[in-house]
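re: that chain from earlier
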Amino acid sequence: MTARRAGDAPDGGQLGTEDISRVLDLLFGTVEQAGAIAEALKAQETVTLGSFGSFRADDGVATFRPGTALTEYLQSRTR
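^ sequence. v structure.
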């Protein structure tokens, strides 16, 4: 199995820049409309993105806790 890269679609095709932009807008939101993460936080849910990290609301403030993969990546880049 070949590792997928950013822009690879599940069917093996390529996603265009507009497709990727739409996905990011739906996930993170825009100035005009909240994304899926913001909506989940409003509902007091925790959103976990694999080993990238998790978002949650603490006393009305959104917080991010980096996951293992992101932490390891950042530590290796700052050494």
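Helices lie at 17-28, 36-42, 68-77.
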